[in-house]
Amino acid sequence: MLKTIVKKGSYHDSVVLMLLTNQISTIKGVKKVSIMMATPANKDIYRQSGLSTEELESASANDMVVVADVDDESLLDTIMQETEAFFKKQSTKEGDKKGAEAVKSWDKALEKLPEANLAVVSIPGAYAALEADRALDEGMNVFMFSDNVTLEDEIKLKKKAHGKGLAVMGPDCGTGIIQGVPVAFTNNVTPGPIGIIGASGTGIQELTTIIDRLGEGVKNAIGTGGRDLSSEVGGTTMMDMIEAMESDTSVKVLIIISKPPAKDVRDRISDRLSNFKKPVITLFLGEKPEYHEENFYHAYTLDEAARLAVGLVRGEEVKEAEVKVDSADFFQPEEKKTIKAYYSGGTLAGEAAMLIKDALDMKVPPQKAEGFMLKTGGHIVVDLGDDVYTQGKPHPMIDPAKRIECMQEAIDDASTGVILLDIMLGYGSHEDMAGALLPSIIELRDKAEAEGRKLFFVATVCGTRRDFQNYDEAVGKLKDAGVIVCENNKLAVRTAIRAIGMDFEEPSKEIRPKKVAEIERTEASEKLIQLLSEKPKIINIGLKSFAQVVESFGCDVVQYDWMPPAGGDVKLIKTLSFLRGYEGFDIDEANRSVIAKIVASQPVIKDVVPAKSVIKELNEGKVLLHAGPPIQYKDMPDPVQGSCVGASLFEGWAATEEEARKLLEAGEVTFIPCHHVKAVGPMGGITSANMPVFVVENRTDGNEAYCTMNEGIGKVLRFGAYSQEVVDRLLWMKEVLGPTLGRAIRSIDGGLNVNPLVAKAIAMGDEFHQRNIAASLAFLKEVSPIITKMDMEEKDRYDVIKFLADTDQFFLNIMMATGKAVMDGARLVTEGTVVTAMCRNGVEFGIRISGMGDEWFTAPVNTPQGLYFTGYDGEDACPDMGDSAITETLGVGGMAMIAAPAVTRFVGAGGYEDALRTSTEMTEITIDRNPNFIIPNWNFQGTCLGIDARLVVEKGITPVINTGIAHKIAGYGQIGAGTVHPPVECFEKAITAYARKLGFDSEE
């Protein structure tokens, strides 16, 4: 039976998960298992392997999924224990190394290394092109280790790179050396005067290691990716790099290597190389050149190309290596034995197939199958690095399993006389592949001997004596086990061919005068010349091991711990890319204009008046304002409906609850969102005509905003209570509290400035959503002397001051009106992606962004998580509601959790470290810091400023909102406090709509 475990938000690199899958598959009782990230491509692999489940299909690209076929469900505990131990071991290994500094976004990476000129991309192919495109926009060259990138994307990227004077190496570029620094699956090669450009990874490795063992070196070896020399791509990277290599004074000899290129591209490259100013060697795999030209040499094999290059550097002929083997025991041709060859990569496999076909004197193309370079007459040459073998599985350079399986199948074929293989050393490869393969080699050799059969194992080890796997030790192990080990692949293939009684001929080549083609000369890009002339400064996006290697060679490198942006949704990623690169105007500049208005705002408490005196819509019959985006009474959650009942009783529209509900259900009351009339309302948000409201004016832009006054704690209207006690308090606020505060504030010349109150209170531990005690007392400090002098009933005076002194949260509603006034002023900038409002009505969460004006973008609201009063738990909680998230929109509240460590446990955020982590995480989705509101215990940094909807979608980090928790049944009031996050869908809808407004179609 299939069992599924989904680890939400647990991202791991595909190579790591492949190795983990192999380990878990060895557990007794696990019939089949796959562990991958739930990307769309990986879900296809699960389906193809019969491991798709409902839980898998609902998981996101940032979720790790374990699907196991087990009979005993208790094995799941064992699997997860092994998984955790595996990750712990990986973490310990990484911790033992001095790793490159890690970041989680482009912005942070560029901040750490602004002069970076190379992005190394090793992430799933579905996303690699998008990140490569971002790198090009940032002026960086790209090394794309990633495969499964579409041909269309490769063409676009390389055209773009060419236009910018940059290069895209890849996709599926496994090997590179830049200024002696190995990139990806590369060997530790001595720097030297030979340059290489190759549409081949293992081919470059074979060339560089032969050159190294011959005593010369390679400073720059540039991989172009296997498709670069196709007609569609047109050799873009190859041609640009030829120009750069010609200008590179350290290059004395150039080697060009490629799998069979398109004829038109091959001819264009040959024409360019005929004009090359230095000696150049070409190796177009599959061609059998019959001559050389002066300073323009044409090789048949990798070994020949390497020896020619070394000879040209030294000015002498370099002899071919020999293998010491007793050939007397080899097979005779009439025995018709076959070769089974299993390679790590396409180029060495292609060379083997070419030489075997030559020996067989094949005049017609052999039968081929997926993953096979040759399949004819019992002879097979397999590229185990082909996608058909590596999709969802480790590469054969790092995992011996598939090769062992293939060798076991080969031994069952009685015609098999030779098993031929390569061992790839170097960075990224298995730490001891020879040792990993030897037990199977010995077992199969012994099995053949027991059956009275001869079987030869022939191998080549591709590596240098500085590779960490120890070249000589690997060769020694194999030889000790009876394996015939050859110096290079050509020699290994020739030995295998001779072992079955055959051979091939190589022509002796004369040197003819060079035919120089007429071409249109172009200049080498300065950026590419720079890339080849100094150690690269690298942003490594993906495999951490790549960063660790280049750092050990003295490179500046930043490790970008990549996760699929936008939850892995490719359409959203393209939308983000469009907005980032939009050329109509500078969206970032528009966003800076929005936040500049926030910083420049001057909010002032101007008055306290009946709501109907400043909100004209409240004078048009029975009208109630509610929190959040638009909603009808019938759809409101019970506490909000309860608030409507209380407001109806307060206004005298009904004498009883039954009467109130009757008129509400009959549609006699009109409902308007507070935000639509310059107002905000806490929790249920219900505001009626005669409720007193604070009037806050943003003096900078001349706009006003309104909010009711805080009722205190306990059973209150905003939490859905509507008893006589609640109504009586509202009436007292209307008749006493509101008029008293109105008179006091009006007596202050110019009103009461809010910014100084906030600046003082934030330094005293307020965050202005769950904790407002310092600000409430600061407000009391300002108004109480005035109230003491006012002509009023002494009891009323006492009651007002006592109420203000007792209501720790009184300033919250002032802060809400302030947030609304400031953000409405910022909304005067009508472009950009800054969030200008966040609110909820108990059913939907809604946001607005600067570039989309009054339009709401909504999604189902979440339920807060936090601490509950005694006797209540999460089952009792109402989904989130209220306009108070305007505080987080401004950058305080949950966004400034670090300012109020005293309340972090109350809202369920843990202790100080959790508060610090929360606020620091919020900087990932905001544009800047607000210099008006400095937080002392955050190294005197300002509060977060300007939530950018693009960053929310890109990083999957939603704003954290501090909030009270209402009971889901009206009348109970507040039952706890906690935090809540908006649904990311709101932000996704907002940026999609804005991109559409600017002319983007995600379907194109």
Automatic annotation (TrEMBL):
InterPro entries: AllG-like (IPR009499), CoA-bd (IPR003781), OXTCase_su_AllG_h-dom (IPR024033), SUCC_ACL_C (IPR005811), Succinyl-CoA_synth-like (IPR016102). Residues 343-497 form the ATP-citrate synthase/succinyl-CoA ligase C-terminal domain. One of its GO terms (molecular function) is succinate-CoA ligase (GDP-forming) activity. Gene3D superfamilies: conserved protein of unknown function from Enterococcus faecalis V583, Enterococcus faecalis V583 domain, NAD(P)-binding Rossmann-like Domain, Succinyl-CoA synthetase domains, v583 domain like. GO terms for cellular component: cytosol; succinate-CoA ligase complex (ADP-forming). One of its GO terms (biological process) is tricarboxylic acid cycle. Transmembrane segments: none annotated. This is Acyl-CoA synthetase FdrA. SUPFAM superfamilies: Succinyl-CoA synthetase domains. Residues 192-270 form the CoA-binding domain. It holds the Pfam family CoA_binding.
